[in-house]
Fold these 2 entries.
Entry 1:
Amino acid sequence: MDAVIGLIQAIPIDLLIIQTVNGIVTGMILALVASGLTLIFGIMDVVNFAHGELFMLGAYLGVIVVATTGNFWLGLIVSSVVVAVLGAALQVVTLRPLIGRDPLNTILVTFGISLILQNYALWQFGTVTRKITEPISSYFTLFYLQYPWYRIVVTVLSAVIIGGFWLFLKYGKFGVWIRATTQDRVMAQAMGIPVPWVFTGVFALGAAMAAASGVLFAPLGGVAPTMGLDWVLKAFIVVVVGGMGNLGGSILAAIFISLLEAYASIWVNPSQAVIVSFVVLILTLLFRPTGLFATPK
Amino acid sequence: MTRHNKIYWAGFAVVMAVLIIAPLVLPAFWGRFLTEVLIWGLLAMSSDLLIGYTGMVSFGHSAFFGLGMYGAAAALLLVSPPNLWLAIGFGLVGAAGAALFVAYFSTRLRDIYFAITTLIFSQIFYVIIFTWTAVTGGENGLIFTRPHFSIPLLYDARFTPTMMHWFVLAVVTASYLFLRRVTQSPFGMVLQSIRENEGRTRAIGYPVQRYKIVSVMLSGIFAGLAGVLYAIQNQFAAPDFVYFVTSGDTVIFNVLGGIGTLVGPIVGAGFFQLLRELMSRIFGDQFPYLIPVGFIFIAMIIFLPQGLLGFARRWLNK
């Protein structure tokens, strides 16, 4: 009995709660990244390897706009719009010629894009990590910590963007087109939906979501040219664990994985905590290859 | 001997002769450059067995390459005096272990899922090597001395750059001939039939997953061999080589040179390294040579998916 009480007392409750909040905050940002990725995959069968680089580029654009105008929210909007246009251009130039070819070609092409974008950022901005100051500087007290309100705002904002996106898919005209294209590409075309442009629009939308999450994340962790790979890997894991093309599953998986990593980093250093999400992926592949949160059909 | 065979082996002999004489004629820098191209070529060729013949794109070859490197490092640091053959043995065992682990899990998946899982597995090895400082030296890696070239009881000499080149050439050539034999064997035919139509291959009664596991392991072992050679050539093992960039380069070599040809990836590696060298000479060291390489890479996938040697693919595999 004493041993059990000792064990319970050994659990650092306050740390667990702090890490739960941290996990949900990063989980929502990750969910925003992953929903763009899963949208592009679900509709176009394209695994966008450059998604992390769009995230990174969005964050840098945010840094530039904030540095010149001082307005964070303007940075968020400008960065999303610019990256959306870039995404549309990339899709038209590189992915459109590949429609109808082996999907492996798309992963190779987007890998090429990520190579160019990453090295461009490295060349242009150098290896030094840039940071944006938090636009909301007030704090509230969480145990012994002064916890920034900004993190809570980010979480809510991510949820709002994802929610708005879901409403748009459900009720917007373009959203209906997107869902129709997902269900049956040929039939959608026959009904007069401009399928190639739906693809372009979807890619732009996914790119904008990546950029927005990049700007939102920038005040939390800083911006570096190589940050894309970490995020795209995590987003891949989320998308596989949540079930490819399943929006709700992705959000749950993003929070689940971020929570696990946050708890793990109580005991090991953060770069090792990443392994926890790798293990989740392996277990998912072994036991539920269609995704942990997939609804059985 | 058929006519095709005569031309093939004549061409083979000419290329071999050029590669044997090259280090005697070339300035030291370009001799070394050629040796490294051969090592990268071996890495790319190992990956071609998966990409070109089994139809699986691996984005995780850095793990096998890196384990080969660190395996060789372990043998060279732990055993004194350092022994070449022991280094190769350790490196191959390390790479084979990693390959078994990766193969067991990732071959359950196909296409892009396979590509993503191999990438994620290679990152696991990277994180372990990077953070386990006590054993692997962490970020700084390991430094060791080059072993002698020795044939037990018969011969023992210090490696000169020229001898190193010949040794690498011998290993790469033997690997090429072996892999070519594998791809032409009944086993290789099954791999190619998996590439063409996995479902039908399974329906005929071949245990597809077992074939895939062996294919990933073979590929991993040769990637590990490339890692061993690189470690011996440069006398260090560093976590950078376990990082994703190495895997990405391997895929680029394959696409540039031409998948499914075995020699194509070597040509691709040479082309890549040459571009890099030329650009850093013309525009300076800081020039981001990967940007133009990325453009060439994308253009090749869209317009020339067969790669530089794609036109000779059927002929080379005959």
Note: Strands of chain A lie at 139-142, 145-148.
Entry 2:
Amino acid sequence: MIAASLYIVVCSARNHVRLRLRRLREPRYLVGAVAGAAYLYFSFFARLRTARAGQRRRGGAGVPIALASAMRSGAAGLVGLFLFAVTVVAWLLPFESGLLAFSDAEMQFLFPAPVSRRALLVHRMIRSQIGLLFGGAIIGLAMPTASGYARLRSAIAMWLLLSTGKVYFTGISLARAKLASSDAGARRAAWLPVGILAAASVVVGAALYRAFAGGAPESMRDLLERTTAAIGAGPAGVVLWPFTALARPIFAAGPREYLAALAGSALVLAATSAWVLQTDAALEDAAAAAAARRASAAPAQASAYRRSRAGLTLAISGRPETVFAWKAATQTLRGVDGRNIFRLAAIVVALAAAATSLGRAGGARVMAGAGAFALASAAFLILMAPQVLRVDMRDDLRHLEVLKTWPVRAAAIVRGQLLWPGAILTAGAWAALALAEILAGASLLARVGLAWRLSAGAAVAILAPALVFAQLTIHNAAALLFPAWVPLGNQRPRGLDAMGQRLILLGATWLVLIVSIIPGAIGGAIVWLALTPVAGPAAVVPAALACAAAVAAEVLVATEALGPAYERLDLTAVERAE
Amino acid sequence: MALAVDHFSRTYQAASGTFTAVDDLSFAVAGGEIVGLIGPNGAGKTTTLRSIAGILKPTSGVIGIDGHDIVADPIDAKRRLAFMPDEPHLFEYLTVAEHLRLVARLYAVDDFDRRAAALLDELELTGKERSLPGELSRGMRQKVVIACGLVRHATTLLFDEPLTGLDPIGIRRMRNTIAARAQQGAAILLSSHLLHLVQEVCSRVIIMDRGRKIADGTFDELASRADLAAAGSNLEQIFFRVTGHGA
């Protein structure tokens, strides 16, 4: 079976590369590839060369940056603690590693084949390696170090870490499925890791409590030092060893220490793999469930939506754009898993309660933290979420065969696709901004004067929809102009192998966004300069209005201009996408 | 003519170069006529139907729906058209009723409630209005696609393998449905590998092979041509003969 798996991996990778190279015959993909190569060069290799030159001048030894050196002693422990926390959260939230996401072809060819389910899992582990290696390489390249050797070390360490995570999350999926099993033995086996993790949580929690029971930390350094001391020794150190072992290679100083750390990390991966492979019975069930889904000929996404959620009623007449907003709203409504929101809320409440328990100062910190969180959320919703929320053309490309038959102007389709995600992100950003304003007294914003705080808040609220819609326009333009770069529907790139492509798309989006904002920014600056002597801080509000109006006009023009691109978009271009 | 295809060609860019899927195809379908489009795999049938529906852009030639060019005047052309593909493409997050309502909104169907109720009954979808596509069998999903096509006032109906996934009762009902729409004046172009269905339902047959039209006429006309059929041939025998696969 391993030979067959390797054959599949090699053939898939070879054909994948061939497909990519063949696409370079088309100018738009060639331009994309050149842009990607340039991005990689200027982001990593050029920086590496510059840093090396700087080190030569300073006589440096090519070690990781000073911060990493300073924190090296405790960093592995802190990262280990973080990994432990992620592990606990993973049991509460249904993370999926994708390792059991067998493709249709795998189910059709491998499930009826005379191979054990365990061999199938090994096959999936082998298949995931290309993505994991690529992910490790990308993270290695992104490491803030000037040394190629340090990057290679980091890439290997990250590969082991990512591999362990992938296998462990699969184990969680398998065990979770058995938690309520009617078979007492299977149920006990599934609850065992939960019990171990709960006990470990108590040990780690007690160590941290003892460390901070004497008083709240006075500074970030104090916080880190106390945490490191609490988890670095005693029972907590033992409990956290597997997690720390995974992080240790990243921070190892010399080759000998690195190799020793790498051995520990590999040991954890081996133990995790053994644990997952021994849950053969659960794997049988998971594989059988996948086969049953296939036999029912139901779409793979069927389980992702819930009929029980009442949809919105579509008016029988109106502008065509609103049809798309209704469609996307229904999709969002039926796709959101309320249980996840509840679990997430429970975690947030638990963390808040833990922080508040530290005393009155803790309560104030919670308020300050919530304010900072609200600000960060607003920034995320405005600047990053348009990349993530894909209920627009990026999702609807898979329905292009249907959309193309509709008697609707192409520009109206493009505009309609933007409406719902733009509206929901704007509403979210406004809510977050309002919360940040309410909590401003306790947060970092307390240092800012009231007039400035309110004016800036209003200005950001005005700019938010402009920025959100501008980004959505850019993303949808990319989907129309480069459909093969856009994953369709609930397709997700296997593992991390498309990380580089996403980085390129994100960079390009921001670049285009910056360029598209320049006219509005110039207009806004003129308004601000003109009104500041009269209105003071409040001048930023009309300035933001001017900027937002300019961006809105650009969005309207862009959606009209994208109409012909939609008309030209050939179904075969989308069908060839992965 | 409700549907007029004039010197239509469609090429694809393949790894080995340009591939011509349909080459200089011309035909017309009048209102009330049911035309069968048959041919072996790769003959260009689906490409033709997809191009008529506006999904694929013709490389050359003109496709008109009630006089409206599908490329130059796509909105008016598409408003008169209903395409029912062989593979049911549905939005997995919309229920059956919501699909029908969506189509009614897009095509400005005035008497939607009455038409929808009648169609759900005709296609045996009553009781499934609140089902998501993932909860339906393939045959049921195919019926939903057909219901979406029939709920509007289309003058030209395109069926690509309309009987795929249907049970025998569904097949019989679908045959009756297609015939009824033709009697109401719709122009129907139907692609199928079920030659007995084509012979039974269609008033005219177009046979395609390797992207070209190689025969066009009523079954009697084709059967009477000495170069196409021996005496007493049925459509299957004619098909094998003209496509060069022997009888």
Note: The first strand of chain B starts at residue 3 and ends at 14.
